[in-house]
Amino acid sequence: MRLGLVIDLDVCVGCHACAVACKQWNSSGTTGPLTDYDPYGADPSGVWFNRIRSFEVGEYPQSKTVNFPMSCMHCETAECVTVCPTGASYKRPEDGIVLVDQDKCMGCNYCAWACPYGARELDQASGTMKKCTLCVDRIYDEALPEAERQPACVLTCPTRARHFGDLDDPDSGVSAVVRERGGFQSMPELGYNPTNQYLPPRVQRPAQQADRPRASLQDKLKEWMARAITK
Amino acid sequence: MLGEGLLTALPQFEDHASQEKKYTTCYMCACRCGIEVTVENNQVRFIRGNRAHPVNQGVLCAKGNAGIMKQISPAKLRNPMRRKPGTERGAGAFEEISWDEALDELTARLRAIRETDPKRLAFFTGRDQMQALTGLWAQQFGTINWAAHGGFCSVNMAAAGLYMMGHAFWEFGDPDWDRTKYFMLWGVAEDHASNPIKLGIEKLKRRGGKFVSINPVRTGYQAVADEWVPIKPGTDGALALSMIHVLLSREQFDWDFLVRYTNAPFLVVQTPGKPGDGMILRDADGRPQAWDNVNGGLVNGMEAGITPALFGEYVGPDGRPVKPVMQLIAEKYLDPQYAPERAAKVCGVPAEQIERLALEMAHVAFKETIEIKCDWTDWAGRRHEKFIGRPVSMHAMRGISAHSNGFQTCRALHLLQILLGTVDVPGGHRAKAPFPRHVPPPIKPAKHTAPNTPLSAPPLGFPTMPEDLVIDEQGHPLRIDKAYSWEAPIANHGLMHMVITNAVNGDPYPIDTLIFFMANMAWNSTMNTGDIQDMLRAKNDDGGHKIPYLVVVDSFHSETVNFADLVLPDTTYLERFDAISMLDRPISEPDSPCDSIRYPVIEPDRNVRPWQEVLVDLAGRLGFPAFTDDQGQPKYAGYTDFIRRWEKAPGIGFLAGWRGEQGEKSMRGEPNPDQWERYRENQCFFQHHLPENQRFYRFANRDYLDWAKEVGFNATAEPIVMELYSETLQRFRLAGQGLYDGPMPTDAQDKQRLVDYFDPLPIWYLSLEEAAVSEQEYPFHAVNQRPMHMYHSWDSQNAWLRQITAQNYLYMNRGRAERMGIADESWVWVESHNGRIRVQVKLMEGCQEDTVWTWNAIGKQSGAWGLSADAPESRRGFLMNHLISELLPPGSGDRRITNSDPVTGQAAWYDLKVKITPATDGADCAWPEFDTIQPLPGQAESPGELRYQTHEAVNLRRSLKDILTRN
Amino acid sequence: MYPAISVIVFTVASGAGFGLLILVALFSAFGIGGGLSLGETLTAGILGLALATVGLVSSTFHLANPRNAWRAFNRIRTSWLSREGVFAVLFYPVAILYFGGLWFMGGTKTGALQGLAVLTMLLGVAVVFSTGMIYACLRTIRQWNTSLVPANYLLMGLASGGVLLTTVLAYTKGPALATVATTTLTLLAAAGIGKLIYYFWIGKPQGSTINTATGFTRAGVRLFESGQSGGAFLNKEFGYQAPISLVHRLRLVVYALAFVIPAVLVALLMQNGMDVLALLTVFSLLAGLAVERWLFFAEARHVVNLFYGAQRT
Ligand SMILES: Nc1nc2c(c(=O)[nH]1)N[C@H]1C(S)=C(S)[C@@H](COP(=O)(O)OP(=O)(O)OC[C@H]3O[C@@H](n4cnc5c(=O)[nH]c(N)nc54)[C@H](O)[C@@H]3O)O[C@H]1N2
Ligand SMILES: Nc1nc2c(c(=O)[nH]1)N[C@H]1C(S)=C(S)[C@@H](COP(=O)(O)OP(=O)(O)OC[C@H]3O[C@@H](n4cnc5c(=O)[nH]c(N)nc54)[C@H](O)[C@@H]3O)O[C@H]1N2
Ligand code: SF4
Ligand code: SF4
Ligand code: SF4
Ligand code: SF4
Ligand code: SF4
Ligand SMILES: [Mo]
């Protein structure tokens, strides 16, 4: 099993709902709390697992704005795991989820250096590295109704741009959309083989137009006058 | 879906036994999504969208997800407070008092006002959702000086819709997201239907429909638009009317729809310069006349079965020339001044694009028609087998409404929708109950006040003629905001943005007490913030304040709280009961009238009271008739009791669900003692599913119209006729021309405005500020956008949301800025006719070249909202409001006129024109700078670190063996 | 990457320390160029161990949770950081055994001691190589992701070791001075050339870009908003960027202080044997290496910067 997210850039409006839902769930989640520093002060910051970046492609007036949510990609070649000296970072063989054991991490940041996707953030208060858990504490929680055993970010996304599932299973919903929509990976050249994929914006075919020709106003009004439509 | 075997390996992360799931309604914004709140030890573990809820269908936005941080905000007010005796207003020195003291003081003051001149109380509310209650309270008090935020928000949209088609954009209608194939979004960054629009756009795009966005800025929704039209602000009317020109010139309009459901065939008298010109020809019984094309001759335009002419020139019985409305429309808009080539110059949108967009819509409307098989009966009793749908839909909001030409622009959009036959049809723009209503709804604003007497009508209503204005015999405004005066005759929602200025100027008269509820009027929701703060401090010669007593009802330490004489602390949304009523702006869906409640999920830990509770209490103390019994004793035990038992009309109350003694009735029925509990059991909302045959064409749908009358939405079951041509506007215009048989203005400016702007057919004109200032001097349009993750001023106190945005920038088109020598992230001066600000610039591609913009309400006054004095919100963030004047630049007359739409009084925030120059003083903070607001008494220092969690984390552990043997 | 003092001290000191220890083991155990006296060996050995220790201790200063530092030896199978730790930990007993043995034997070189010396050298090389690999294995930082990095670390470690040994010998006037100095000159030259190649190599545009990061490869892409208006872990950790002009100036400083001046001084020293020159060489070299190391971090651009406004890495 290779669990991951597929994010549809065609509909992501960059609303940050997924980022905040993630923050909310995980604050009291298995690697919580996610410390916030100077929360009401001059330099507010904190630990997040999911951040939304926006880009502009092309130049005005042909420019296109693209919102790009990024969290851990649960890479197949998870170099963050490879480099971790303590073994705190690991990739679960059963489902591919990459996790950090909070009891073992020594806070060396090395894994964050190895991660190209900015998915890992150090919690200064606990001194440990934190990252997206793929909501392992939701997706396997049998006390939750089946429909809710989904990552918090997926459940909340108002444009339903986020899809969760098994990318190993060719019949899964996520595999299907990746196939149909030409899903792609971020920075494939680095060879991490991220599990998460992005769906590119759809290309619209040119819309059809009504084709009645113009006529002169005089002729028209005359012609129209005679038309009888029953009220 | 996930394998069983894996489960055993995991610990139990959540102790569900110690948690409770409670349902209520979100109020991180006005969208009113249903939420499920998991509570653990009276703390919020998790807020999740309620899947069953009609509004959000399980999803939740960023704000909704940040509710925890609102609940723990350090800016929460804790006690009633009085301005410390001997200190200056605005100095922010308070003393805490008890609720008894606070309410005794307030009651005494209000009683004295009510006994003498009730309108000396002005009661204005901001982003609330309980206007049915606050309006009723004001009416019972007897003051006409009540309104909510609508006047500075989007009354242009409401008024244009309600005076034209019986429903509107804003919260009164929705695109048919399940069926529409072509969606055009005008000037919307986020809007009230926050989650529904997002859900809808995804549906549309998944279906392969086309999404066109008309907006000077490309962010958010516009980012995912299939086509982005970077329009010059304030010119949408010209664009829409030009599209109408294209449709007419290619004969692309819905004949049947126009004949059957609109006033297009009605005959209009053509006697320019004479009284009665431009009025609809009526018979002795007042019935509108049409010309029957088959039988020849005048007929009652309301009669079924006639074959009325849409075009032609005819003569009335009295010999006056008449023309059908549609003839006037064709003559007007086929004129070359509306040709795309002309509009292109105004809007900055290429002519070919204008023409193409119009014809694309026409194609979808007329060639991709959809049909829904369903037996339904029209208003005349005729049976139909299907609903015909034209799947083109639109939505529009503040990009249109916040301009002084917004009312007419919005009418132009509706005309476009109606010509395409897309109103309340499958795939089009559909009304949400209680809409559609008659055009306009038959309620007139109250005018007369008397001591100790409730108003005979609600303070707000829908004037249809000069007689309905709220003015005295001399034509002077009677309301403090001058709503329903010649300056803003159809000000359906009042002009909240004028209240402080007018009250301080004693124009039209001084007041005694001003109550602000949930409105940050000393900061982000006022124009001209700095001057307004001075006005709040202003004193008369005798040393008394020009506004003698200011009461602020808020939950948080806002900038406005700082100016209060009396502060009444409200609860948070998770701590109180609320009724989101169909008498107000409900949460209905097109297929289903709905309402909802809030049910407390957290116990307050402070000495706060829900404002509605206080209102009901005050109403009892003051002896309002509707709130007291024969003995003059309070009739209601409190807010929940009031909501349960009060009836507007027999069987109709605030909540429509589970009425009747056993809760067996809905929409109409006797009060049910158990109603709140029944709502709670149903996850806090009520949804009435309309039968399929009542879901479309409701303006002319017999079964729906009968039902709507029955449940009290409409006074009659008459069909609702869409008014392409507005007789109301024409009446006012005649008054301006001196041709009206009734009240007429005497001031030249007023007359001219009626003549210029009260065109009975939609027009476009240059917005008023733009027309009044020099284009050379102020070349840029400056507008705002709502950030999707922040609600006005509320969310800077939110430790999570402010990490996303704690500073705003002035965004500019990159090419334009570089040509001006303005570098990314440099500081610039932005100057309008009203003032100047120093702000930091960010350059971007997706911004129309003549436009600059910023995120709304990020800038804060230092010290407010529990933030440190050096927070980025106050050091580098800024408000555009300083630049916006509540008054137009001095014009021809001696009176300065409100910076508002001349028809509706809608605040014209986005008419702002500015010039931009690099700031060479080397400063790196925003200007103007304001004094730092003092902390409140007993206010704890905001924490320097947050580690919120409701339970100790249950870690997932990795064994040493695993570490040593496997990656 | 932000050039933290702790990491600069760590890499410079441990590089020099292990470099010195490697050379001491080589020259002392095999009598090359006249060999080292016991005193010279022990002095240099202790100096080397001290430097290595300072470096290693300094490296733990940036741990946010040092309580778990002991676990760092767990992942020798994959992690170069772990490997470095393990090699370093193995190095100490071997080196101490060697130096202790030598001392115990009064300077007599037995076969066993020679074996230990070889082991010391190998482990020393392994430690320094691992240090280089800690950086070189990161595909996220193209300026580091090259075999030039461990080569540089090794060459510079050895060169600085050479300078240190030369210094010791300059004061003891030991017989091996000439050979050691010549070796040092060679090492300095090799390290200088290595660094030259490195600077040339990182100057070539390559690696991930904003286009590959976003998947939009056919048009220009620019960051609009990074989703956080202030700082956070990622841009604080990775966002550091030195001004280009400063970088260029500092490269000259590196060349002057770390290569040219030491080489000239060592050459002079070989001519006239003035021991202060040796001390100057050490100062110059260590200062140069500190700058070199500062640049090593300051010039490295983590790909995460693409999400904070960088166009390429
Ligand atoms: N997240 C969030 N949601 C909110 C609010 C909030 O503060 N935050 N506020 C609520 C309130 S009170 C309101 S009134 C609604 C308002 O919701 P919106 O109508 O979305 O209001 P704005 O954010 O002002 O967006 C106005 C849009 O119009 C564009 N615009 C400006 N001038 C013109 C123009 O002349 N023509 C066109 N075509 N476009 C133009 C701007 O670029 C911007 O995108 O949102 C509500 N919902
Ligand atoms: N420049 C510029 N200015 C604008 C706009 C713009 O687009 N540009 N938009 C305008 C529009 S459309 C609007 S609607 C206004 C919004 O204007 P307002 O409604 O006045 O502003 P808000 O910032 O929403 O804050 C209202 C107050 O409500 C308080 N509050 C929040 N929750 C509660 C609660 O539960 N109970 C009580 N009692 N108080 C609560 C907050 O603390 C805050 O002080 O702003 C207007 N101002
Ligand atoms: S919640 Fe959905 S639409 Fe919003 S930013 Fe996340 S992915 Fe995009
Ligand atoms: S995204 Fe980063 S943290 Fe996640 S698996 Fe890949 S490399 Fe590791
Ligand atoms: S920070 Fe923690 S998880 Fe990351 S590499 Fe170091 S020990 Fe491993
Ligand atoms: S899967 Fe869970 S942890 Fe990962 S980004 Fe989504 S909400 Fe956050
Ligand atoms: S849109 Fe967001 S903030 Fe508004 S009610 Fe819905 S969830 Fe709450
Ligand atoms: Mo608004």
List the helices and strands and how they pair.
The complex is a heterotrimer of chains A (231), B (967) and C (313).
Chain A: E1 3-8, H1 17-27, E2 36-37, E3 45-46, E4 51-57, E5 64-70, H2 79-83, E6 89-91, E7 98-100, H3 110-114, E8 120-123, E9 128-131, H4 136-139, H5 152-156, E10 162-166, H6 173-181, E11 197-199, H7 217-225
Chain B: E1 19-25, E2 34-40, E3 43-49, H1 62-65, H2 67-71, E4 81-83, E5 94-96, H3 99-116, E6 121-125, H4 131-141, E7 146-147, H5 150-153, H6 155-162, E8 173-175, E9 182-186, H7 194-206, E10 210-214, H8 220-223, E11 227-229, H9 236-249, H10 255-261, E12 267-269, E13 289-291, E14 298-300, E15 314-315, E16 321-324, H11 325-333, H12 340-347, H13 351-367, E17 370-377, E18 383-389, E19 392-396, H14 398-401, H15 406-419, E20 429-431, H16 499-505, E21 513-517, H17 529-537, E22 549-554, E23 566-569, E24 578-580, E25 594-598, H18 611-622, H19 639-645, H20 675-681, E26 685-687, H21 702-710, H22 727-737, H23 748-757, H24 768-772, E27 780-785, H25 801-804, E28 810-813, H26 814-819, E29 827-832, E30 835-844, E31 851-855, H27 872-875, E32 913-918, E33 945-946, H28 960-965
Parallel strand pairs in B: 6-7, 6-21, 9-10, 9-19, 10-11, 21-22, 22-23, 27-31, 28-30
Antiparallel strand pairs in B: 1-2, 2-3, 4-5, 4-23, 8-20, 12-16, 13-14, 15-16, 17-18, 24-25, 25-26, 27-32, 28-31, 29-30, 29-32
Chain C: H1 5-30, H2 38-60, H3 80-104, H4 111-136, H5 148-172, H6 177-203, H7 210-214, E1 221-225, H8 233-238, H9 244-272, H10 275-298
